[in-house]
Amino acid sequence: MNANVEIPEIEISGVTKQFGNAGPVLDAINIVVGKQEFVSIIGPSGCGKSTILKLIAGLSSPTSGMIRVDGMTPLNARETISFVFQDATLLPWRTVKENIGLGMELERVPKDRREKEIATLLDLVGLKQVAKSYPRELSGGMKMRASIARALATHPRVMLLDEPFAALDEMTRDRLNEEFLRLRAEQQWTAVFVTHSVPEAVFLSDRIVVLAPNPGRVYAEFSVDLPMPRTAALRGSKEFDALASRVAHTLRETILQ
Amino acid sequence: MKQKTITVLNALAVFAVFLFLWQLILWVFHVPRFMLPSPYAVALAVLARFPSLMNSLAITAEESAGGLIASIVVGVLVALVFAQSRWIRKMLYPYTLLLQTVPIIAIAPLILMWMGAGLPAVTLIAFIISLAPIIANTTQGLISVDENLVHLFLMHNASSRQILFKLRLPHAIPNLFVGMRIASGIAVIGAITGELFAGSGRVGEGGLGYSILYASSQLQTEYLFALVLAATVLGFGFLFLIMFLEWYFLHKWHESARATEIE
Q1: A81 closest CB neighbour out of B155, B171, B173
Q2: Are the CB atoms for A43 and A211 separated by under 8 Å?
Q3: Cβ <8 Å between B157 and A57
Q4: Can you list the alpha helix ranges (DSSP code H) found in A37-162?
Q5: Pairing relationship of beta strands A217-223 and A81-84 according to DSSP bridges
Q6: Closest partner CB to A89 (pick from B152, B166, B252)
């Protein structure tokens, strides 16, 4: 977009992914994500959305093509990346506090710094009251808040999110969307957010990439020129609805074609 | 609390009915005493020979507890090895099945022949018979971790050691307890089986298995019943202890531990 010479945060060029002898899941994908950009990837099921995240995270490697995160290979860039999964993936034998500290613990952050960070995050995501509870005592929304707090604890520059709010009811999801943008305004990470919800993609993103299935490929892109900070009031606005219906229309095309 | 009292009362009521039916059979069919003694006669036998009964119980308890603890330690270590790779599992798992299918009755005389009758040999038999469920259940727990959790650990550059000790091992603890529950019952069976073949010592100096053999050869049916009762109490004691530990360690976070709570 703007002609800056700096290295993009994430660069996916000509990436194809094939499992065994089956047809490719992803075919010649090109996506560039700028620093501190929020990009949503949306598409019908089976278009390889989650596979793209796994490739960026280095949890899987492309059959051909190149992926760079801040100019490095995904494996080398790992400590700058946090991954948030569709289910909260909390360890059931750890309290909320201990779960939030897990990433830092694995990266051998000293205990006193961990405690400080955990206290800040508990406040930030509003889980102070349940810090010593176990995951099974929490609601779905609270679990996801804990999961996001755990991801933020290691101060990532890139957040990869695989449909984190998909399992939540609509009201909780909307509220978490708002909280999520608030968190991002404070910390300014780059985000690649996979979703199948059009309103969610429009509400959160700077840019939306629409994928088509069989094989998974980039079908269209939309830039979202809605002002930040975005609040709940935006959802009813004319501009929001207009963009959402354009994205939804394009999404329908990818299935019908 | 009220619910608990009712549960206890129910259990006691069932026991009372059981004793009554037992006595009824004696009255109606005039069964000879040496075939089926009355509950009262069994109770008298328990009281009269309490010290030697307790002595036998202690010996068997020591053997089966020793075998059980050894099988837990060795079983978890073997499971940790099994969890390392699919190849190791494929190569070695058939042999753990062998452990499970070998008739303990058939190898008990062999072990006694090799090691000589005594506490170590009987403990070894209890160990062998209770090992398989520990290995099988713990391995299952170690390898059935959600793939996303492994990914999460990898994203934070976790070492394979961290993945083992902070993820796989805690995840396997509920499975380990399932294995321990099964093993606790069969460890007692193993010890008694071993004792049946370890024909040494006088009455009161052998374990429950030996005393059972002796009492039956002497037609001391009341005492035989008392010994069977003691063996049952021993197995139940182990099971209860393990279920308590399971509850203690898991009730805060694991659903199954809550399900085993007696309502």
Answers
A1: B155
A2: yes
A3: no
A4: 49-57, 96-100, 102-106, 111-125, 140-153
A5: unpaired
A6: B152
- B157·A135 Cβ contact <8 A: no
The predicted complex's ipTM stands at: 0.91
User: How many alpha carbons lie under 13 Å from residue A127 in its C-beta half-sphere?
Assistant: 33
Give the whole-angstrom CA distance, residue A190 versus residue B231: 66
Residue A143 CA to residue A157 CA, distance in Å, equals 22
Is the pLDDT at B258 greater than 80, yes or no?
Answer: no
Instruction: Say yes or no for a CB contact (<8 Å) between A91 and B151.
Output: no
For chain B, the residues whose C-beta falls within 8 A of a C-beta of chain A are 146, 148-149, 151-158, 162, 166-167, 170-171, 173, 252-255
Does the pLDDT of residue B200 top 80, yes or no? no
Whether B163 has a pLDDT exceeding 70, the answer reads yes
Closest CA to B195 of B91, B122, B100: B122
Instruction: Give residue-wise pLDDT tens across range A82-141.
Output: 999 989 999 999 999 999 999 999 999 999 999 999 999 998 888 999 999 999 999 998
* Chain A residues close to B171, C-beta within 8 Å: 93
Give the number of other Cβ atoms within 10 Å of residue A19's Cβ: 11
Please list, in sequence order, all residues whose beta carbon lies within 8 angstroms of the beta carbon of residue A168, skipping any fewer than 6 positions away: A140, A141, A144, A176
CA atoms of A232 and A242, how far apart (whole Å): 16
Task: Tell me the helix, strand and coil percentages in chain A, rounded to 5.
Answer: 40, 20, 35
Tokens of A182: 């608030």
Question: B160 to chain A: nearest residue by CA?
Answer: A106
Task: Report the C-alpha gap between A47 and B171 in whole angstroms.
Answer: 33
A78 in contact with B, Cβ within 8 Å: yes
In this structure, which amino acid lies at residue A39?
V
Mark which residues 113-142 of A lie under 8 Å from B by CB.
134-136
CB atoms B146 and A89 under 8 Å: yes
The partner residue sitting opposite A106, judged by closest CB among B162, B170, B253, is: B162
Neighbour tally for B239: CB within 10 Å: 16
Can you spell out the DSSP letters for A5-54? -SPPSEEEEEEEE--TTSPPSEEEEEEEE-TT-EEEEE--TTS-HHHHHH
Q: What's the rounded Cα separation, in Å, for the pair B18 and B51?
A: 27
Burial of A72 by CB count in 10 Å (0-12 exposed, 13-18 middle, 19+ buried)? middle
Nearest CA in chain A to B146: A89
User: DSSP H helical segments within chain B, as ranges?
Assistant: 2-29, 39-48, 50-82, 86-101, 104-115, 119-143, 147-155, 160-163, 169-197, 208-217, 221-250, 255-259
Tell me the two tokens of residue B220: 């001391």
CA distance A250 to B21: 78
